[in-house]
Amino acid sequence: MMADLTQDPKASLEGAPVIDFDKFKPSRSFIASRKRKDLIMRVLIALAFVIALIPLISVLWTTLVNGLKRLNLNFLSFNMTGVVGGNPTPSGGYGGVFHAIIGTLEITFGAMVISIPIGLLCAVYLVEYAHGGKLAQTITLLVDVMSGIPSIVAGLFAFSMFTILVGPGSVNGFAGSVSLSLLMLPTVVKSSEEMLKIVPGDLREASYALGVTKQRTITKIVLRTALPGIVSGCILAIARVIGETAPLLMTAGYIASTNFNLFDGKMTTLPVYVFQEYSKLNANCPANATAACVTTIPMERSWAAALVLILIVLILNGIGRLVAKVFAVKSER
Amino acid sequence: MPAASGKTADKVFRVIAYACGILILVVLAAVFLFLLFRAWPLIGGNQADNSKTIADFTGGKANGFWQYVGPLLFGTVLVSALALLLSFPVSIGIALFISHYAPKKLATALSYVVDLLAAIPSVIYGLWGGLILVPAIYPFWNWVATYLGWIPLFAGPAANPSRTVATVAVVLAVMILPIITSLSRDIFLQTPRLQQEAALALGATKWEMVKLAVLPFGKSGVVSASMLGLGRALGETMAVLMILSPGLNYSFKLLQASQNQTIAANIAAQYPEANDLGVSVLIGTGLVLFLITFVVNYVARKITEKKVG
């Protein structure tokens, strides 16, 4: 190239190969194919979303339609005692979920009482005390790993622990609480940790500068500032475990009557109720039964209980998000 | 006096916070140890009794523990892998849609929808799968078996009701979709803005920009997200229990009933009728499941950790 420049420009131009710059121009078909590909991917990506919407809408819609058939005050205020086959009970209903709602509330409350303080303090340790040490890294990693523990393993753990420590056959609501708290703990730690991290460092330093001890700074300044976020995280964690079935199947069991005592005897929860009714398939109606006898009643009860469960979960989710949004800490970022 | 008490409180609080941090480690160790203790008769007990219990469970099909857990493990991995295969492209598509294609207002709404999918309890997916999806999907599986039956995977005749591995995989795919979607979406959103704009400035179409800048950046995050999804699918109990018609074979016949069973669903199914030794056997299988999900989750988290650190 350099040599060419030193020569007579005209001569070099004549000898040089004529570069056809049009060759490098993208051909029309090439541009079209790129555009086509772009469009195809656009459509596929939008389609992926539609595909995901189908099951969501189907689940919510079928639960709503099938659940509303049997969801009434009677269903909510009676338990399953005195329910024989597909016959109506003396109260005029077909049995209900009162005992399951009580069980779900008590067991979930138990799980809350165990996991929220531990999870919160663990998050405090990770953010305020550990400063990214080796131990803290290990704990963070293991909390993440813990969030992947299958729920049935949590159930087996609580079951094994109670049979070994308390004695065989100890099926009670509290064992259910223990298994749920194992599932809830990582979520609580993670969300609290995130919330503590976004509390501005200036607040802590201002507090220390005034001579306030570390414990007071954490409880009165840091935790107070992060409170809405922590509350919202805990509510979402509750919403996650309130629908767990497998661990409660083996720890809390199933019973037809209402049990208010968390520490003694079997306890029915809503998800387990849904499953038990589903497993019954059909109810028996004797030949001389009246028209009020419904053979498909277990499925209908199952749907109605599922609707109650979904409503509870969705309301909890809504409250959690609302709390986070309304009382959000204004972070510096 | 107040100063002194403040110092004590300070120390006590510090100790409690440390204890709670360490408690996490203790709890994980306790999960492993309690399961091991309760499953001990399986390892240290009378082996003749063990093989008799297992033979009772399986109708004489298996005698040893590994003979028993082998097909279960195979079924678990098969169902989960299929679910991941179905869920992966859709999840990535949705994640890209939310992060790069949808307008901002729509994107927030769509994120809520994905979270909603995650919030629905598994027992409701099981109910929906068992009562709605199983009858609804039969014509499709039947069509697959008729026209694609020459592929061994889809060997017919398609079971009716289709309480098969294929149907379960579809439900599990729906269940792990929100996990993969939300994690990959977060990664995609972190793609450096300059790289994206550089790609566009060079004349790349939107898809080319995604291919050149977003996907390479998010690769490790996506891998980790799908492994977490896999971990979730491996441990899923209720949906499998309520839909699948179980069997204990090393079988790839996705459209036929009574071929496979998963560890988690097997525990829940056998547990109510198991005697003391039977429970030990089931907890032994649970221990295997625990170790597998632990490893999958650990590897998944390690991948992202490297990326961040």
From TrEMBL, chain A:
One of its GO terms (cellular component) is plasma membrane. Residues 101-320 form the ABC transmembrane type-1 domain. It is a multi-pass membrane protein. SUPFAM superfamilies: MetI-like (SSF161098). GO terms for biological process: phosphate ion transmembrane transport. GO terms for molecular function: phosphate transmembrane transporter activity. InterPro entries: MetI-like, MetI-like_sf, Phosphate_PstA, Phosphate_transprt_permease. Keywords: Cell membrane, Membrane, Phosphate transport, Transmembrane, Transmembrane helix, Transport. The keyword Transport applies. Its main location: membrane. It is found in: Cell membrane. Gene3D superfamilies: MetI-like. The chain crosses the membrane at residues 39-61, 97-127, 139-165, 221-242, 303-324. The keyword Membrane applies. Pfam families: BPD_transp_1 (PF00528). It comes from the Bacteria. Belongs to the binding-protein-dependent transport system permease family. CysTW subfamily. Part of the binding-protein-dependent transport system for phosphate; probably responsible for the translocation of the substrate across the membrane. This is Phosphate transport system permease protein PstA. It comes from Bifidobacterium ramosum. The lineage of its organism: Bacteria, Bacillati, Actinomycetota, Actinomycetes, Bifidobacteriales.
Automatic annotation (TrEMBL), chain B:
Keywords: Cell membrane, Membrane, Phosphate transport, Transmembrane, Transmembrane helix, Transport. GO terms for cellular component: plasma membrane. It is a multi-pass membrane protein. Residues 73-300 form the ABC transmembrane type-1 domain. PROSITE patterns: ABC_TM1. It is found in: Cell membrane. One of its GO terms (biological process) is phosphate ion transport. GO terms for molecular function: phosphate transmembrane transporter activity. Its main location: membrane. The chain crosses the membrane at residues 12-37, 72-98, 110-134, 140-158, 165-184, 279-300. InterPro entries: MetI-like, MetI-like_sf, Phosphate_PstC, Phosphate_Transport_Permease. Pfam families: BPD_transp_1 (PF00528). Belongs to the binding-protein-dependent transport system permease family. CysTW subfamily. Part of the binding-protein-dependent transport system for phosphate; probably responsible for the translocation of the substrate across the membrane. This is Phosphate transport system permease protein.
